[in-house]
Amino acid sequence: MIQMTLIQIDNYGPWTVTPNPRNESDLQILQAELFADVQRQIAMKKGLVFYTRFDNMLAVTNGLNEEDHMRIQRSIRNRYPITISMGVGTAKTPYEAQKIATEVLQKNGGAQSEDRTEILAIDSLVKPEDSFVQMAHIDINGITESLTDIIPAFDTNFLVNKAQHYLMTKLIEKGALLFFIGGDNFMSPCNELTTKDLMEIIEEIDEEIDIPLKAGVGRSDNAEDAAYMADLGLEEIRERNNEELVYVLEKTN
Ligand SMILES: Nc1nc2c(ncn2[C@@H]2O[C@H](COP(=O)(O)OP(=O)(O)OP(=O)(O)O)[C@@H](O)[C@H]2O)c(=O)[nH]1
Ligand SMILES: [Mg+2]
Question: Which family does it belong to (predicted)?
Protein backbone atom coordinates (compact mmCIF):
# COMPACT_ATOMS: atom_id res chain seq x y z
CA MET A 1 0.00 0.00 0.00
CA ILE A 2 1.15 3.51 -0.83
CA GLN A 3 0.26 6.60 1.24
CA MET A 4 -0.10 9.95 -0.47
CA THR A 5 -0.61 13.43 0.93
CA LEU A 6 -2.10 16.39 -0.91
CA ILE A 7 -0.66 19.65 0.40
CA GLN A 8 -2.76 22.69 -0.55
CA ILE A 9 -2.20 26.36 0.25
CA ASP A 10 -5.34 27.73 1.94
CA ASN A 11 -7.23 30.43 0.09
CA TYR A 12 -4.17 31.17 -2.05
CA GLY A 13 -5.95 32.55 -5.13
CA PRO A 14 -7.67 35.39 -3.27
CA TRP A 15 -4.53 36.06 -1.18
CA THR A 16 -2.39 36.59 -4.30
CA VAL A 17 -4.59 39.52 -5.37
CA THR A 18 -5.58 41.02 -1.97
CA PRO A 19 -5.62 43.94 -1.46
CA ASN A 20 -3.81 44.31 -4.82
CA PRO A 21 -2.05 41.77 -7.02
CA ARG A 22 1.28 40.81 -5.46
CA ASN A 23 4.46 40.86 -7.52
CA GLU A 24 4.83 37.63 -9.47
CA SER A 25 8.49 37.36 -8.50
CA ASP A 26 7.49 37.40 -4.83
CA LEU A 27 4.89 34.67 -5.40
CA GLN A 28 7.50 32.58 -7.23
CA ILE A 29 9.90 32.95 -4.30
CA LEU A 30 7.19 32.04 -1.79
CA GLN A 31 6.23 28.94 -3.76
CA ALA A 32 9.84 27.77 -4.26
CA GLU A 33 10.66 28.31 -0.59
CA LEU A 34 7.51 26.55 0.57
CA PHE A 35 8.33 23.56 -1.64
CA ALA A 36 11.90 23.35 -0.33
CA ASP A 37 10.65 23.74 3.22
CA VAL A 38 7.96 21.06 3.02
CA GLN A 39 10.38 18.76 1.17
CA ARG A 40 12.98 19.13 3.93
CA GLN A 41 10.46 18.26 6.64
CA ILE A 42 8.88 15.33 4.78
CA ALA A 43 12.31 13.99 3.75
CA MET A 44 13.28 13.77 7.45
CA LYS A 45 10.77 10.91 7.62
CA LYS A 46 11.83 9.40 4.28
CA GLY A 47 8.88 10.78 2.31
CA LEU A 48 9.20 12.60 -1.02
CA VAL A 49 7.29 15.68 -2.25
CA PHE A 50 6.60 16.62 -5.86
CA TYR A 51 6.00 20.33 -6.48
CA THR A 52 3.20 19.62 -8.98
CA ARG A 53 1.38 23.02 -9.18
CA PHE A 54 3.20 24.60 -6.23
CA ASP A 55 -0.12 25.74 -4.74
CA ASN A 56 -1.01 22.02 -4.68
CA MET A 57 1.81 19.57 -4.00
CA LEU A 58 1.62 15.78 -3.88
CA ALA A 59 3.83 13.70 -1.62
CA VAL A 60 4.47 10.02 -1.03
CA THR A 61 4.29 9.86 2.78
CA ASN A 62 4.60 6.22 3.84
CA GLY A 63 6.00 6.38 7.39
CA LEU A 64 4.50 9.77 8.29
CA ASN A 65 1.75 9.76 10.94
CA GLU A 66 -0.81 12.37 12.01
CA GLU A 67 1.62 14.16 14.35
CA ASP A 68 4.27 14.39 11.61
CA HIS A 69 1.76 16.10 9.30
CA MET A 70 0.55 18.46 12.05
CA ARG A 71 4.07 19.55 12.93
CA ILE A 72 4.70 20.61 9.33
CA GLN A 73 1.47 22.61 9.18
CA ARG A 74 2.28 24.35 12.47
CA SER A 75 5.81 25.21 11.40
CA ILE A 76 4.61 26.69 8.09
CA ARG A 77 1.91 28.74 9.87
CA ASN A 78 4.54 30.20 12.22
CA ARG A 79 6.87 31.31 9.44
CA TYR A 80 4.82 32.07 6.30
CA PRO A 81 2.04 34.51 5.44
CA ILE A 82 -0.12 31.53 4.36
CA THR A 83 -1.30 28.24 5.90
CA ILE A 84 -1.52 24.79 4.36
CA SER A 85 -4.19 22.10 4.53
CA MET A 86 -3.51 18.44 3.91
CA GLY A 87 -5.44 15.36 2.82
CA VAL A 88 -4.04 11.86 3.29
CA GLY A 89 -5.11 8.69 1.47
CA THR A 90 -3.82 5.15 1.00
CA ALA A 91 -4.44 2.62 -1.75
CA LYS A 92 -2.85 -0.05 -3.88
CA THR A 93 -2.04 2.41 -6.66
CA PRO A 94 -0.67 5.96 -6.38
CA TYR A 95 -3.46 7.31 -8.60
CA GLU A 96 -6.10 5.91 -6.24
CA ALA A 97 -4.25 7.12 -3.11
CA GLN A 98 -4.05 10.73 -4.33
CA LYS A 99 -7.69 10.56 -5.40
CA ILE A 100 -8.73 9.57 -1.87
CA ALA A 101 -6.39 12.20 -0.37
CA THR A 102 -7.99 14.87 -2.57
CA GLU A 103 -11.56 13.80 -1.85
CA VAL A 104 -11.09 13.75 1.92
CA LEU A 105 -9.70 17.32 1.79
CA GLN A 106 -12.36 18.55 -0.64
CA LYS A 107 -15.04 17.43 1.87
CA ASN A 108 -13.58 19.93 4.36
CA GLY A 109 -13.98 22.96 2.14
CA GLY A 110 -12.69 24.41 -1.09
CA ALA A 111 -9.21 25.68 -1.93
CA GLN A 112 -10.56 29.22 -2.05
CA SER A 113 -12.75 29.03 1.03
CA GLU A 114 -12.11 31.73 3.63
CA ASP A 115 -13.36 29.38 6.35
CA ARG A 116 -10.93 26.56 5.63
CA THR A 117 -7.65 26.94 7.50
CA GLU A 118 -5.04 24.32 8.21
CA ILE A 119 -7.27 21.29 7.87
CA LEU A 120 -5.65 17.88 8.31
CA ALA A 121 -8.03 15.35 6.77
CA ILE A 122 -6.80 11.78 7.06
CA ASP A 123 -8.75 9.03 5.35
CA SER A 124 -6.26 6.36 6.42
CA LEU A 125 -2.57 5.75 7.17
CA VAL A 126 -0.51 2.80 5.92
CA LYS A 127 0.42 0.28 8.61
CA PRO A 128 4.17 -0.43 8.76
CA GLU A 129 3.65 -4.06 7.74
CA ASP A 130 1.62 -3.06 4.64
CA SER A 131 3.91 -0.22 3.56
CA PHE A 132 5.19 -0.51 -0.01
CA VAL A 133 6.43 2.04 -2.53
CA GLN A 134 7.53 1.41 -6.10
CA MET A 135 9.22 4.30 -7.90
CA ALA A 136 10.43 4.51 -11.48
CA HIS A 137 13.10 7.10 -12.26
CA ILE A 138 12.70 7.70 -15.99
CA ASP A 139 15.39 9.50 -17.96
CA ILE A 140 16.00 10.52 -21.59
CA ASN A 141 18.94 8.78 -23.25
CA GLY A 142 21.77 11.03 -24.36
CA ILE A 143 19.89 14.33 -24.05
CA THR A 144 23.13 16.30 -23.63
CA GLU A 145 24.66 15.18 -26.93
CA SER A 146 21.43 15.07 -28.95
CA LEU A 147 19.63 18.17 -27.68
CA THR A 148 21.15 20.26 -24.84
CA ASP A 149 24.40 20.98 -26.69
CA ILE A 150 22.78 21.36 -30.14
CA ILE A 151 19.37 23.07 -30.18
CA PRO A 152 18.02 26.14 -28.36
CA ALA A 153 17.27 25.66 -24.68
CA PHE A 154 13.57 26.36 -25.09
CA ASP A 155 13.21 23.73 -27.83
CA THR A 156 14.84 21.10 -25.60
CA ASN A 157 12.53 22.09 -22.78
CA PHE A 158 9.55 21.72 -25.10
CA LEU A 159 10.61 18.19 -26.05
CA VAL A 160 11.13 17.22 -22.40
CA ASN A 161 7.60 18.47 -21.76
CA LYS A 162 6.28 16.45 -24.67
CA ALA A 163 7.92 13.30 -23.28
CA GLN A 164 6.32 14.10 -19.92
CA HIS A 165 2.88 14.45 -21.45
CA TYR A 166 3.14 11.13 -23.31
CA LEU A 167 4.43 9.36 -20.20
CA MET A 168 1.64 10.78 -18.03
CA THR A 169 -1.03 9.81 -20.54
CA LYS A 170 0.14 6.18 -20.65
CA LEU A 171 1.04 5.77 -16.96
CA ILE A 172 -2.23 7.13 -15.60
CA GLU A 173 -4.05 4.27 -17.34
CA LYS A 174 -2.06 1.89 -15.12
CA GLY A 175 -2.76 3.84 -11.92
CA ALA A 176 0.72 5.40 -11.89
CA LEU A 177 1.62 9.09 -11.52
CA LEU A 178 4.48 10.98 -13.14
CA PHE A 179 6.30 14.12 -12.03
CA PHE A 180 9.04 16.18 -13.66
CA ILE A 181 11.98 16.39 -11.26
CA GLY A 182 14.45 18.49 -13.25
CA GLY A 183 16.86 18.07 -16.16
CA ASP A 184 15.68 15.17 -18.31
CA ASN A 185 14.30 13.28 -15.34
CA PHE A 186 10.86 12.09 -14.33
CA MET A 187 9.81 10.23 -11.19
CA SER A 188 6.84 7.91 -11.25
CA PRO A 189 5.28 6.49 -8.10
CA CYS A 190 4.02 3.30 -9.75
CA ASN A 191 2.92 0.57 -7.31
CA GLU A 192 1.25 -2.24 -9.32
CA LEU A 193 2.91 -1.28 -12.62
CA THR A 194 4.70 -4.31 -14.09
CA THR A 195 8.12 -4.24 -15.72
CA LYS A 196 6.45 -5.42 -18.93
CA ASP A 197 3.98 -2.50 -18.90
CA LEU A 198 6.78 -0.02 -18.36
CA MET A 199 8.90 -1.56 -21.14
CA GLU A 200 5.95 -1.29 -23.51
CA ILE A 201 5.34 2.34 -22.61
CA ILE A 202 8.99 3.21 -23.25
CA GLU A 203 8.96 1.40 -26.59
CA GLU A 204 5.72 3.08 -27.68
CA ILE A 205 7.04 6.55 -26.88
CA ASP A 206 10.23 5.91 -28.82
CA GLU A 207 8.11 4.87 -31.82
CA GLU A 208 5.54 7.66 -31.50
CA ILE A 209 7.72 10.71 -30.81
CA ASP A 210 11.28 9.43 -31.22
CA ILE A 211 12.36 10.16 -27.65
CA PRO A 212 14.43 7.29 -26.21
CA LEU A 213 13.91 6.62 -22.52
CA LYS A 214 15.23 4.31 -19.83
CA ALA A 215 13.94 3.59 -16.33
CA GLY A 216 15.38 2.46 -13.04
CA VAL A 217 12.73 0.97 -10.77
CA GLY A 218 13.13 0.83 -7.00
CA ARG A 219 11.03 -0.90 -4.36
CA SER A 220 11.02 -0.35 -0.62
CA ASP A 221 8.69 0.40 2.27
CA ASN A 222 9.30 4.15 1.90
CA ALA A 223 9.66 6.76 -0.86
CA GLU A 224 13.25 7.76 -0.17
CA ASP A 225 14.71 4.28 -0.38
CA ALA A 226 12.53 3.34 -3.38
CA ALA A 227 13.73 6.45 -5.27
CA TYR A 228 17.32 5.72 -4.29
CA MET A 229 17.08 2.13 -5.56
CA ALA A 230 15.59 3.51 -8.78
CA ASP A 231 18.63 5.79 -9.18
CA LEU A 232 20.94 2.79 -8.72
CA GLY A 233 18.88 0.97 -11.36
CA LEU A 234 19.50 3.81 -13.83
CA GLU A 235 23.24 3.61 -13.16
CA GLU A 236 23.12 -0.14 -13.86
CA ILE A 237 21.47 0.55 -17.22
CA ARG A 238 24.16 3.12 -18.10
CA GLU A 239 26.92 0.68 -17.17
CA ARG A 240 25.39 -1.89 -19.50
CA ASN A 241 25.23 0.67 -22.34
CA ASN A 242 21.41 0.78 -22.39
CA GLU A 243 21.08 -2.88 -23.41
CA GLU A 244 18.13 -3.21 -21.04
CA LEU A 245 15.83 -0.20 -20.79
CA VAL A 246 14.26 -1.10 -17.43
CA TYR A 247 16.17 -2.30 -14.36
CA VAL A 248 14.47 -3.21 -11.09
CA LEU A 249 16.09 -3.14 -7.64
CA GLU A 250 14.49 -4.04 -4.34
CA LYS A 251 15.63 -2.75 -0.97
CA THR A 252 15.88 -5.56 1.55
CA ASN A 253 16.14 -4.56 5.18
N1 LIG B 1 16.71 15.86 -10.64
C2 LIG B 1 17.71 15.19 -11.19
N3 LIG B 1 18.33 15.72 -12.25
C4 LIG B 1 19.34 15.03 -12.81
C5 LIG B 1 19.73 13.75 -12.31
N6 LIG B 1 20.73 13.27 -13.09
C7 LIG B 1 20.94 14.20 -14.05
N8 LIG B 1 20.12 15.28 -13.90
C9 LIG B 1 20.00 16.43 -14.81
O10 LIG B 1 19.70 15.92 -16.11
C11 LIG B 1 20.67 16.33 -17.06
C12 LIG B 1 20.95 15.23 -18.03
O13 LIG B 1 21.70 14.22 -17.37
P14 LIG B 1 21.86 12.75 -17.92
O15 LIG B 1 20.56 12.13 -18.12
O16 LIG B 1 22.82 12.08 -16.98
O17 LIG B 1 22.63 12.99 -19.30
P18 LIG B 1 22.35 12.37 -20.72
O19 LIG B 1 23.12 13.21 -21.69
O20 LIG B 1 20.89 12.23 -20.99
O21 LIG B 1 23.06 10.96 -20.64
P22 LIG B 1 22.40 9.50 -20.37
O23 LIG B 1 21.14 9.71 -19.59
O24 LIG B 1 23.44 8.77 -19.58
O25 LIG B 1 22.14 8.91 -21.70
C26 LIG B 1 21.87 16.72 -16.21
O27 LIG B 1 22.64 17.69 -16.84
C28 LIG B 1 21.25 17.24 -14.97
O29 LIG B 1 20.85 18.58 -15.17
C30 LIG B 1 19.03 13.23 -11.17
O31 LIG B 1 19.29 12.13 -10.65
N32 LIG B 1 18.03 13.97 -10.67
MG1 LIG C 1 19.57 11.29 -19.67
Answer: Belongs to the archaeal-type GTP cyclohydrolase family.
